[in-house]
Every structure is written in C-alpha cells, then in structure tokens.
C-alpha cells in the first residue's frame, strides 16, 4: 500500500495562498530553471532547477491518486479534466458539480476525507496518494491518515491566507527528520510522520 503525502508549496509563515486564493510568488520556482518536467498533463510543462527537478522526478511518478477539496477544484476548474499529478482525482465535497464540462474526466466526488482517502488508496494500489494543503490536510492529520509531509518552502511571507494545515486543532504530531533539497526559490522539506 502506498503512502498518503500531504503536499503543497508554502510561505515561510505557513500559507498555501493568500486571502484571495492567489499563490503569488509561491510558484515562482516552477518556472525559473532549465529542466523541463511534466506532471500528468503533457501540455503543462514546468521549468525547474536541476535540484528541484530531481526531487520532483523522484516523487511525482509514484503518485497514482490525488485528494483535493472542492475549493481547489473550483479555483482550477479541475485543471480542465486533466489531473495535475497522478491519474485520478478524488474531490472532497458535499455537493458534486452538475454542470462541469468534463463528465468523463478521471475525477470522483466524495463526501468526507476518510472516504476520499479510502477510495484513493484502493485506486492507487501500491502507488502514493497526494493530498493538497488546507483544511483537508488538517482533517487527515487529525484522523491519522497522513504518512508523509512534502513541505515545499518558498521564501515569501504572506501574513494571512489559507494555512497548509487549515484550522488543525489536535494532538501534537511528531515528524521524522526531513530530507532537505535546496532548489532555486524553494527548499523541499520531505518528512515521514513518526508512527512510534
């Protein structure tokens, strides 16, 4: 069985977007290097530094499923029906869209984080599951469903916005020492959640 990896690009003060859902300078590192890298969409290349490309190429190919919230789905229009990473997206929502123009896209609308991760695990098999930052990450962490945290730290301070762990209120969660990769305008911090 694969791992559930909570992943996002995060400001120094812990935000994945500002109060208007704008990522600002958080994504600068996706387009500032000489190495072309692709997720699942062959029409969406990233231009990364060599260090970031090596890190991403060691991580993204193992992802089979993604779990996202309805907010991200709406902001991105579900990436026009093409998963950003992996080959199937599970969207946590209380109400599936009825007028989305991509009904045959590999997206499943699920009520609740536990059910979404259960379905994502079943789909992924031995592959990994990517979980986007925000309230879903906090809920999954509180439920003990997160195995790893990929904290891609960008050198920017937002002051307010959408927190990586959402409104998490729970027990302290210990992480193992991180794998650290220094990119250009990003530091990749990859942790395993301590199980002991």
Automatic annotation (TrEMBL):
Q: Could you identify this protein by its name?
A: Dihydrofolate reductase
A GO molecular-function annotation: 5-amino-6-(5-phosphoribosylamino)uracil reductase activity
The record, for InterPro entries, names:
DHFR-like_dom_sf, RibDG_C
Occurrences of domain Bacterial bifunctional deaminase-reductase C-terminal (ranges): 113-168
Tell me which Gene Ontology terms the entry assigns under biological process.
Answer: riboflavin biosynthetic process
Which species is this UniProt entry from?
Kribbella steppae
The highest taxon in the source lineage is Bacteria
A Pfam family of the record is: RibD_C
